[in-house]
Every structure is written in structure tokens, then in C-alpha cells.
Amino acid sequence: MKPTGIIDLHCDTLTARHGERQKGAKSLTDPGLAFSFARVPAGIRWAQCCAIYIPDALRGRAAADYFDYYADSFDRQMAYDRELVVPCASAAGISAAFEGGRHAAILTVEGGAALCGDLGRVEYLKRRGVRMLTLVWNGENELGSGNSTQKGLTAFGKAAVRRLEEAGIIVDCSHLNDRGFEDLCAVSARPFIASHSNARAVCAHPRNLLDGQICEIVRRGGLIGLNFYRRFLRRDGEAGLDDLYRHLSHFLALGAEKAVAIGSDFDGAEIPAGFDRVEKIPAIWDYLARRGLSQPLLEDLFFRNAFRYFVRMLP
After folding, report:
1. 84's torsion region: left (phi>0), alpha (psi -120 to 50) or beta?
2. Residue (of 263, 260, 267) closest to 293 by Cα position
3. Cα–Cα distance between 284 and 282 in angstroms, integer?
4. Is the pLDDT of residue 130 over 60?
């Protein structure tokens, strides 16, 4: 058996060529990158969350221009490759894409600096097609602080969470530090996501989730995407499928069987060679099946958990 449908909650492929910023560049089908819609294995329909990563150093107009450049690039690529992939803003859109024999692309943002400190930009991002926003990256922005700092959400960040939820944009807590996670729990009214985060009890990296945080996401009906980055899987970086299994097993032990999904971090991280490209993903399914995971559990992990979450959050 192999997966017939996959949802991946995070990749950086859209901005992976940011050093080359050329008009007409087609990163999402670039054969040299880890993820490519053109290289998805035959027989699999793939829904990919494509992040516009906003560097920590960008603020104000610079952040706005950066976002616009890559939102335009996303739109241009979707128009050019419309026979292969379609942009989707809802679970219904994903279903329609798959039924039409095409893949699905969901536009997301990694870094709240895209809001430029202006709550009015929430609606602008939504009009551009954004359906998920990772509040912070590793450092600070107008919303709060990432895992390399100790500050929590700012007053603007708390207001932004409420506005994002009202607008129907999913709030993503990946990269948020522990204090910021507590602040998010205090202000959030809807189930939020950790799009690409692992378990800190398995790998003691501050980017990974504490057990209490995992349980809180599960309790709220949220979603957690397994991250493939070698140093989030194992501190020494010498990671492989066994380490991915250890994180998954820990999530399952904490009751996350209906809340765990895939959040590869393709083209944004160093990934072990066994699963570092899109065409290798079925190898994860095969490995986990050999480790004794049932087909229904695998289907939940690769597709159904994320799809059910999108049905609730992005109907």
C-alpha cells in the first residue's frame, strides 16, 4: 500500500530561490529543489502548504514588498501550471482539485512581519489567498518573539491573533517560544496549529513542543505537523526514519492520533537523505507500516487528520 492523498503543512519552496529573485521563476516545479509538484509520485494527489517566509530583518514597507513579490510569484506559477496544480483556499477546494486530477497549493505566511504592524493588513493577506500565518520566526517581530528569545506576544500580537481568527486565517504557533505559547493560549478562541514542530521530550530543542503544549493543542482540536529537519529530530543531527518514528510514537502516546500530520519543512531545512525529496515520501509510509502502524492510522497521518482540520477551519 501507499498513500493516495497527502497534505504537507509547511514547505519553504516558494521562497527557496530568494537569492535569485527572477521574474518568471518557477520554484514550485523546480527540479533542483526538495519539493516539486512535477515530481510528486504517480498515483498520489498532494496538497502543499506553500509558505512565504518573511526574514526577521524585514519590517514595514520592506516586509510588505517582499510579501507582495512572492504572492505575485505564487499567482503566476498557479496560472502557468494550472493543468498540474490549483490554488486552494478551503477543504472543498482541495477535494475539487483531487477530483479533477490535479494537486492543491495553499498559500501561507511564515512570519507576522507581513502584517507590518497594521491589523488592516489581515484582510489584505486574506484577499491575496493566505490561509495560515506562522506568527513569528526565530527572532522578534511586531507580534512577538521566536524561540531564540524569551519575550511573549506583544499587545499587537494578541490583537492580531483575534483578528486572524475572525478573518478565518489559521494561526500557527511553530517557532513561538514558551512564553508566547502561553500568551497564545490565553487569547486564542479557535484551534490553532503547529505546522512543523516535533516533541521536545524526544529531542531537546527549543523549537520543539513540550508535552503540555502538545496536549493543549490536542485538547483544543488543533493540529501538529511532524518536522523532518534533522536537528529537530535528533540534537546531533544524525537523524533518520527511526528518529521520525520516535517523535510520532511520542505524539501518539500523548493522545495525538487524530492531531498529528506531516509538516516536512522541505526547502527550509536539512533533511535526512532517506526522505529529503518529495518522491521519497512513500518510503516513510512503507517504513511506518513495517513498524506496525495500521493503514487507518497512516491515512490519518498523511491526509485525513489535516483534511478534517481544514474542513472545520477552512470549509
Report:
1. alpha
2. 260
3. 5
4. yes
